[in-house]
Amino acid sequence: MMNRNNLIIKIRNVLDLNLYEAKVYLAVIAYAPIKRNDVFKRADIPQSRIYDIIVNLKNKGLINSFKKNKDEYYQALDPSHIAQILGISQYAGRAGYKGCMFSAEELYSYTK
Q1: What are residue 74's DSSP bridge partners?
Q2: Considering only CA atoms, which of 3, 11, 72 is closest in space to residue 38?
Q3: What is the CATH number of the domain that holds 75?
Q4: Is 49 helix (H, G, I), strand (E, B) or coil?
Q5: Do the beta carbons of residue 30 and residue 106 sit within 8 Å?
Q6: What is the number of domains present in the chain?
Q7: Which ranges of the chain would DSSP assign to H, the alpha helix?
Q8: Could you read off the pLDDT of 17-67 as tens digits, one per residue?
Q9: Quick check: 63 and 77 in contact, CB under 8 A?
């Protein structure tokens, strides 16, 4: 399995995300469904930044949220959705862009 830092670099390059966005996206994939308070801890980012980062990722169509028992939870859209966002017409289990490749399996199998 690829190490966390290399995967974050690939996610940043493929999706044109900043470091915090990539870390949050990866944490949401790995631990979904996950509450906001848990996201910043798992992503290892400042708590004060989590709201803006989640809004950015939702606006980019990478994550969505739902409420359960008064708590808001986040989950990533299927990583294969990345291909659609990037306008890649042929997707055979791998998405590639800007010379970087990663698979849905790599994203789903990540655990910190």
Answers
A1: 34, 65
A2: 72
A3: 1.10.10.10
A4: helix
A5: no
A6: 1
A7: 4-15, 19-31, 36-43, 50-59, 81-86, 104-109
A8: 999 999 999 888 888 889 988 998 999 999 999 999 999 999 998 899 999
A9: yes
Secondary structure class of 18 (helix, strand, coil): coil
C-alpha to C-alpha distance for 27 and 20, rounded to whole angstroms: 11
45-54, 73-82, 89-98, 103-112: which has the minimum mean pLDDT? Answer: 89-98
**How many whole angstroms from its chain centre is CA 38?**
14
Length of the chain: 112
φ, ψ dihedrals at 94, nearest 5°: -140, 145
- Which residue(s) pair with 64 in the sheet? 75
Residue 76 structural domain: 4-109
* Distance, CA of 3 to CA of 86 (rounded, Å): 24
